[in-house]
Records
---
Amino acid sequence: MRGILFSFLLTIVCVKGIAQNNYACDLIAKDLLPYASVVVRNEEVNIEIKDLDNVIYHIKKVVTVLNKNGDTKAGLSIYYDKITSVKTIKGFVYDEFGKSIQKIAEKDFDDYAVSDGFSLFNDDRVKVYKKAINQYPYTIEFEYELKAKQSLHFPSWQPNDETGLAVEKSAYSFTCPVGYNLRYKEFNIPSKMAMSASKDGRLKIYKWQVEHIKALKNEPFTPIKNTAEIKLMLAPEKFVYETFSGSFTNWQQFGKWMYDDLIKDREAVPTETANYIKQITDGITDPKLKAQKIYEYMQHKTHYISVQVGIGGYRPFLASDVDKDGYGDCKALVNYTKSLFNVVGIESYYCVVHAGRGEKIGMVDDFASIQGNHIILCLPFKNDTTWLECTNQKMPFGFLGDFTDDRTVLACTPEGGKLLHTPKYTADNNLEKRKANFVISATGELTGDMETVFKGTDYEDREGLIAEAQADRIKEVHRYYPINNLEIEKLDYKQDKSIKPTTTEYIKLSAHEYAAVTDGKLYFAINSVNRTNALRQMQNRINPVYINRGYTEEDEITYTLPKGYRLDSEPLNKTINKNFGSFTVIMTLNGDKLTYKRKFQLKDGTYSKETYDEMVDFYQTVNDADLYNVALVKN
């Protein structure tokens, strides 16, 4: 989904070039090689503002690929549309000695219509070059030029945005008329920006440059936006985009422009629909319950489909069109839902967010610019702010899940932009709670049932399964519970879609030869339904430990043991408490009932790099306990 992101986001994957330069691999400084799969030999990104609707991009980049892990940096994808055109492309491939072995021309690029599998309208295209070199190391060079008829968004400069990538030299320059006001924000740039002027004094030139940047190490539990990454963000004061123009220097002004030029006057719904909304909410006095009724109507009536035609990347369809056609992208569906709320006087905010599962990236508070890739809706009820995801027909009212939770968003209101924060689901909220009753026979067969409740962001853990046929569900569940010889006799799911939703999974199962029978003894794994893997050890960690999302697992399994057997192994009893998490496991025997209770919790947050060694020990202890085997012997 392009959403708010500008269509020609530069996937600058590889490289610079003048064929006479020496790109022999043995010229790379030896101290740049540790942890590196790729070395950027030289990169130059030059942006020139000729006019607000005439911006030229000239990009050169040279990359040496040291091994197959760096092959993804050896291709190039250039996106274009009716606003952005490709003027020139050329390049070269060099062997390890810096000798040119292949020339690259525009005809060597494949040209595709961009499709994400959801788009109804999409005028984006992409030119793609895929390398065909299998001998390492090699060097690849590209040089190309783009022309954009817009000045609303400029791509960021991120010379070391991946682990395993070292940089010999990278430069970013921005040329504009003397009267043009550029705003920028720097992150971890070691050298100062250099300002100069053209010979005739009519242009000013901003330039940033870095040299000899070592590769970032790939480490578990590293912050999503690595604290050592170099980044430059740019934004205009005045801009043009298609038929739109405006100016902004802060979030209030930017949100005001979005509301006035892109959202306002697109909210009218047909009289028939307005009357129906009044009818289905008649008699409901609680505004939140009224909003829920309208939200569920919208979900039933519409479906999501991405729209990416020109200004369609920014501006929502008319609410009346969505009402008639029954589909829209995130912008259109949020605007439509907002329009339905307007009918009954419920205030709501159209909000820009950077969405993504497994990552929580918010708006940069002090730098107003094009950020984000998705739209959600906020209902600012007094003391009860409620958030809505309008693109998912199955999402419970008031639930965001891990796609847009816990991040700063921009609300576009008639008064202007406001920065708000979406709800956070804590380690206690994100709960997977399991209870099982199993019977083990004297021949080692396991029978029983198991119920698991998923809450918080875990609510969606089985969402994909619920929509599948039963045979496919059962096949997939075998992946979740790798019990030897598992047979599933019954599998059922129920969902409670209240404000704090839950998904409940019920399984009736059996497994022959679950317990091993040897010399009159029975051996079986006490926990075969929820195991945690150990962490790899790591020397000389560089990054702090970052836990993106906390969660809790609670398991209780009661085994009915065969008659005439007693425990012949040391009972499992262990407790660990750390600042980043905790683990408790208790095993008790009462008559023929063996009860196993396990609780594992990980707490989100940023911790010192030294914490990682503690985590390795912590996870190893948990793993050892999860692999514990019970031994039973006859009385």
---
Amino acid sequence: MASRAGLLLIISLVAPSLADAASVERLVMPGPVIEGHADLESECSNCHKAFVAGEQTALCLDCHKDVAADVAEHAGLHGTLAVATPQLICKSCHTEHKGRAADIVGLNRNLFDHDRTDFPLLGAHAGRDCAACHEVGKPFRDAPSSCVGCHGKQQPHHERLGEDCGLCHSETRRWPDVRFDHATTDFPLTGAHVDAVCGSCHVNEVWKDLPSSCVACHSGDDVHRGTRGGKCGSCHNTTRWSGAKFDHFEETGFALEGRHSEIVCAACHLDNMAIKQPPKTCVGCHSADDDHSGRFGSDCGHCHGVATWETRYDHLAETGFALLGVHENLSCTSCHKGALTDALPTTCVGCHDKDDPHHGRQRACDSCHTVVSWHSVAFDHGFTQFPLIGMHASAACEACHSNLEFADTSQVCGDCHGKRDYHKGALGPACGTCHNPNGWDRWQFDHDKQTTYPLTGGHADLECAACHKVPLHDKVILSRACISCHVTDDVHDGRFGTDCGRCHSTESFTDTALLGR
């Protein structure tokens, strides 16, 4: 098929009278236009500018003024496309000259992306059939874009809230799922008000000129029956009615501290708070709780705190007498039998004279005892002339101080252990010469070094009692003469004298080897 330029050349040669451009374009028109453009078909210039294709879009917009307005305002489908494609060409999508019944819109409903318009389909709108919003026989652009345009008959407010449904509703939620920023009004919703349904305050769809005071809605909830006035917010908040918050100190001059901060208002404001000014002194409210029966005066706060009745009195700072050990947990009346101002003794015997098992013989109680317990004796015997070591360290005080007298106690071993003296006094009273406090059986005595009579031969294995038989009260002194111990063994009957060592040795009496010397 010959090109359009070639066809024009032939026509210009064959029919010179048709040489003007308009006539030539009509002659080569590719086919009829659609029915809607039929009245424009007689003049190509209605839609075309001869040999200037770029002007065609402007001519389209001259006729389609609603589309032109969308393009200018960047609204609708065409306005959105104009932003994405600045060089918008109408014929790129809408091709003409395909006959009177041709569909030059070319809309594929199944593939059309509604997000390319200025009305994206969100939430419940997504997936809906086109006919649900676009009325058959009307241009798609004429579909309403406001909520009331489609849902006017469904809204229950009867137009009392205007047409901006989006202030409360959203296409992503169901109609009953209301979201409204009440903070944009003169009454922001806080606390429990946030979860209240709209109809609980806006009865019968009344939205304007509603009262904003607490009692206007909650007069039936006022347990004070109006005795505290209408400013509920002075004590209560919108979170909950219970747990009222009231600056008691600022309003009344009486700070609620400690336990006072936890009690209910009616605990002090009796008769449903009809009493506006209860007493501010401790005894004014707590006289029935005074265990001292008034003996300690009316200044309860001097000893007690508002957190608890338990005493918080600094006894050391106030009296110079620290309460330590078992004293710390005593009740005040254990010592203070009379008035608080009565003078009390500060010495141990001043209070515990009847408890003294020493009957006054030892007055410095704290030398041995502590305030932790009478039976918890703490005395450092190391500071005396008789430090306690070995078995003495674990002995009870009464083991040596049987009559609970501590001065002038004997330090001689025999005075305590005489009845258990295995030697019957034959080794004298100085037990420590052989024994030590770690145990009687742990004795040590070196006869060769500690005396001038070394034990040799048969003497070495003898028991002490073999020689030391007679009780002694002073030094241990025995005769060194053999005959003093062996007189009964002398077969010579004394004829050879008393110096047995001239013939015999300590090894054996029968060994007379020394005679040959």
